[in-house]
Task: structure prediction
Amino acid sequence: MTTQARTGGAAPRLPAPDEPVLDVSGLSVRFRMRGGRRIAAVTDASFRLWPGECLALVGESGCGKSVLASALLGLLPANAQTAGRALVGGLDLLAADERTLARTVRGRRVGLVPQSPAAHLTPVRTVRSQLQETVRELTGARGSGLRAKAEAAAERAAFPADHLDRYPHQLSGGLAQRAATALALVGDAPLLLADEPTTGLDRDLVDRTVDELRRHADAGHALLMITHDLAAAERIADRVAVMYAGRIVELTDAPAFFGEPGPRHPYARGLLDALPERAFTPIPGMPPELGALPAGCAFAARCEHATAACKTVPALLDGTACHHPQEPTRA
Result:
């Protein structure tokens, strides 16, 4: 049975427009390693996600984005410790037990487009079989309507109908991604977590996929999209959160981030300047290991604006966690 279908129970109501779908406060994740070592994967993440809104979470690989998503769904390994809270419809996802998460959260309150879709698809069952099971469990459809609803779900994610009777090992990476997206959309969950939903897709399919995710948000749902694809983020996002070394260092409206005045955090600005259509200038240096973070600002070693003040960790104030927030200029 797929992750999306192991849920049961009635689908929750959509929140009121003035009520956040997701309210994250002080979310931290630590991994206990052998020898007492600890990995600070996520530190003090706080944000709210509202009905009809898409928040794009961006940053270099290994910064903690996917760990944050896994924490929200209770999919972390046994050596993980979480702190803080993450409320969805009054339920604290970080405090919920596995039974609650499996029966009332995954697929119903929170849908997931996984980063590694092949690992979430049952290898011995066809895509059609898995879609029909998910549709039956999440919508209650039976009989002749079940097949039609499963095919409609596939069409939403641009999954070709002539591939529905194939097994996961017969799919390309892009097709597996679209199958996982179709499964995630079935339950029309109030919150959808899309972890690199455009991996392995060509540009036309990227645009089609993010447009479908945007329609999901426009229907009153909330979307947290984790992505390296800044073009996709610009196309779909209302706000952008930039993560570096486990911390959110900038949180701002998407038009201001991608346009004027642009990012205020030097790292966020560097992400945009590294794009071929912009300055095409890479950020110097490498991000620190999450198990050996510096005492102060984790970006200081790569930042041309660093001073002695950066020996302390900056708080996230007015949407930027930086002792020297910038007002960048555009050519």
